[in-house]
Amino acid sequence: MKTGWLIYEKQDAIDNKAYIDWFISEAHQQQIRLTLILRENITYGLKDGKRFVQTTEDDALPDFMIIRTIEPLLTVHVEKMGVHTFNPSTVATIANDKALTHQHILDLAIPMVHTLFFKKHLLPTTPPLRFPFIVKATGGRGGQEVYWIDSTATWHALRQRDLATDLVIQETNVQVGKDIRVFIVGKKVIGAVLRESKTDYRANFKLGGQATWYDLSESEYETVMKIVHAFDFGMVGIDFLIGQDGHLYFNEIEDIVGSRTLSHVSDLNILKEYVTYIKDHI
């Protein structure tokens, strides 16, 4: 029987217990032993010229790891030890850096909003875009570390905050509080949802946004597939902003994507698809 580690930080494991149990159950049904391993219990590094991974929970390295923490270095480390990883380190490295993601997506000729890249300590006194605009930490996720700037006062207040080092700044000439998330497994589009909030500029479901099923048009599907074919995805979410004219603009790739919204609007079993994909690739 093939074995795998499902790696979470402790608090995230508590918050996602139902999802983890579902994941382990789907793996068991496909004759895979998937074990939850807490990141806090893993030590890895180099010793005597070799890489090593130690954990208090399991002595033997598994056939694969599903790494549900933002830690591309861990992914690279275990890959070099011969362990399959999902998502692979290339995806984990790019997708968890919003600035780096935009650099790669631009090369695919996919539309995106006006975007600037800044170091926190180099933010100018004069606002760099017309109000309103958005400031994001390049490593933020789940709608966190995102700031709405609509005046000189909010801009100066932001500059005084304890911000992440690397930032992206983006115009907001889009339908604020709405986005499209497309769920991907391997080279397959599983489904898409429209997320929207009537009370917040962020559409995240966990922040109180609503979700409905979304049917991609043929041209939208082709845009998504340009991205899919450029990466070695395991399971991700690809997010798009919606322009005033209804056209989609790339926003980000979610490496550690959940499926609350997809489960909310459909009976699709994305984890069954994902476990099948993993089984086929190990």
Strands of the widest sheet, in order across it, are: 13-12-11-14-15
Please estimate the helix content. 25-40%
**Largest sheet composition:** 5 strands, antiparallel
Q: What global shape is seen?
A: globular
Query: What are the low-pLDDT stretches, counting only 5+ consecutive residues below 50?
Result: none
The rounded Rg comes to 20 Å
If helices are DSSP runs of H or I spanning 4 or more residues, what is the number of helices? 9
- Binned strand content: 25-35%
Number of strands: 15
Oligomer: single chain
List SSEs in N-to-C order. Answer: EHHEEEEHEHHEEEHEEEEHEEHH
Question: How many angstroms does the end-to-end distance come to?
Answer: 12 Å
What's the mean pLDDT score?
95
Structural class determined from secondary elements: alpha+beta
